[in-house]
Amino acid sequence: MSQQTESFPRQSARTRHFRLGAPRQVSVSPNGHRIVFVRSNSGGDTVNRLVVADLEGASLVERVVAEPALLLAGQGEHLSAAERARRERMRETTSGITAYSLDSAASRAAFALSGSDFAEMCMGSLHQIGATFGAPRGHLATGFPSAQSHGA
Question: Is the pLDDT of residue 31 over 80?
Answer without folding.
Answer: yes
